[in-house]
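>> Question from a student workshop board

For tomorrow's exercise we were told to take the sequence and the ligand below, predict the bound structure, and bring the output to class. My setup keeps failing. Could a helper post the expected result so I can at least see what it should look like? The ligand is S-adenosyl-L-homocysteine.
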Amino acid sequence: MKRLNLLGKTVSDFEDIMRSLGEKPYRGRQVFKWLYRDMQSDFNLMSNLAMTLRRRLDERYEFIGLHPTRHAVSSDDTEKFLFRLDDGALIETVLIPEGDKRTVCISSQAGCALGCAFCATGKMGFTRNLTAGEIVGQLLYLRSRDGQEAFHNIVFMGMGEPLLNYDEMVRAVDIISSEIGLSVSAKKITVSTVGVVPGIYRLADSGLKVNLAISLHVADEEKRKKIIPIAKKYGIKELTEAVRYFARKRRKRVTFEYVLMGGFNDAQNDALMLARMITGIPCKINLIAYNPVPGLPYRRPTDDEVDRFAQWLYPRAPAVTVRKSRGMDIEAACGQLAGKYV
Ligand code: SAH
Ligand code: SF4
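>> Workshop helper replied:
Here is what the output should look like for this input. Compare the format with yours to find the bug.
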């Protein structure tokens, strides 16, 4: 009999499994903790379970994680991992050291259906949604390699649009933030969206305490539509309304990501429109210099141009940060993930 892989099952799934085996639900919590927190995937070694239960679990189930097929290290110590999933789909994960903390950038889909004009993932098209197990598997691999301190912050900024894989993203966050799971507080998790408005409302109304980042990139409606196809469906007004709702409901500042593309969205007028657009929204702005993607026409602005743009925003915009590009030499920087090396 083929054993069922439990990777991606939540606490309540484990409780159900135990009920189906005629056991008390709290046994499910014990197994959940062994697998995700203690990283013990051998049922026979789960010392607080009866031998008979260990054997029954071992007959029916297994817990198989992800293992990278390629691994690259940048000159700035950023690391990129390529995972080949069971069906051959490829995804990437990026680990970014920042001082003594590490941020891991995870994928929520293989590819992306939204086709933004500046993004390597968008260019490759959509393969499929990841399961919660495949999302959590990226993190468990790093924990198995580097231990508890493998990472401190988690950003859904790898491949894919997390709000278009909402249910599996939520299941993954549930496992990640559980104290008997990966035990990373939801406050340390950021979900990034290019502006899937219904998903923003859903997230605002959910109990999840995750942070929200919006990939805005242009404040002008017509210009935004040119580079972000989904902006034709959800305009700036609807997007800002959804963001205001989220900020109010969750009492949280939202981050606007703004990729500066030389000659396209980096003029003073672009900064003024952006400042106007965010007036009254509790937020911060994160400026990112466009990272080159082979075959795309945009120019990476110089550091001076990025600083100049930041100065135009200040003091109208409450908080502006500039994101340093990391891992560019191994195509691990924002927007460069395309599941290559095959
Ligand atoms: N789909 C979501 C999550 C992916 S995040 C989203 O778009 O928000 C990927 C981040 O990298 C986004 O902020 C995206 O706009 C940014 N990005 C995409 N292409 C880029 C590029 N070539 N240079 C810099 N950032 C880029
Ligand atoms: Fe998809 Fe985000 Fe890339 Fe747009 S920027 S194609 S939404 S991954």
